[in-house]
Amino acid sequence: MKQLRRTPPAATAGVWHVTAGSDSAVLKVVHDGGSGSRWPASSDRADPYYWRREPCAYESGLLRAFGAPVCRALVERDDGSVALWLEDAPEVATWTPELLEGVARRLGRAQAAPLPDEPWLSRGWLRAYLALHDVAGAPFVDRLDALPQTFCHHDFHPANVLGANADVVIDWAYCGLGAVGLDAGVLVADGVADEAFPAELADAVCSAVWRGYLAGLGDGGWSGDEADVRFAFAHGTALRLSWLPRGERAAWDATIDFLQRLASTA
What we know:
The chain is an alpha+beta fold. Helix content is 38%, strand content 16%.
């Protein structure tokens, strides 16, 4: 058994890769780890950082359309934590604009579905995230909240997309309601910031993801205003990552430059 993440959010007690003979799985244990972490946990179901949201999401069946890993078992443990035994999927070997376009198209198709209303879904997640980073952006968030809403992952960066065909999406702890277009923007910008692909591919990836996402929305029958989607995709993403400081990492500087270019086109 190999531990996969050593500095998890407060809601994650640990993540391990488990093998038994020719079989393998990922064990993720979630619990109420309190508010001491950079990524807090809450026992309040209405809180954007409700600790049990990911088990709820797997229990609901909402994740099937998004390509979440198969949940082989969900076990309530005596200490109050929950063990999720999940399908094991490999990391993506190399990210290309074409591969990310396919991810975005599947995302758009899934996000064209009717809006769910389960009470455990995160609401106001972006506002809470910005507060954690001391970012003031209430007018922009108010506008994003007034746009067409969908079921969002809220952390849809390339590291959370696995599988030989990039069709397995993990880490659903923050899922809930958000503006159509936000997840697709994160896929690009966090890809630059986390160095999932070279910064010089940012514009090509952005064009591919935008094209794929709109096609996916169309596949799913969504018929809203493209300008609303573009606002969330560009300005919502720029707001989300506006806490990034210049001068600390070359990838962050490249992300800031990219987001400025993106915002100028929306």
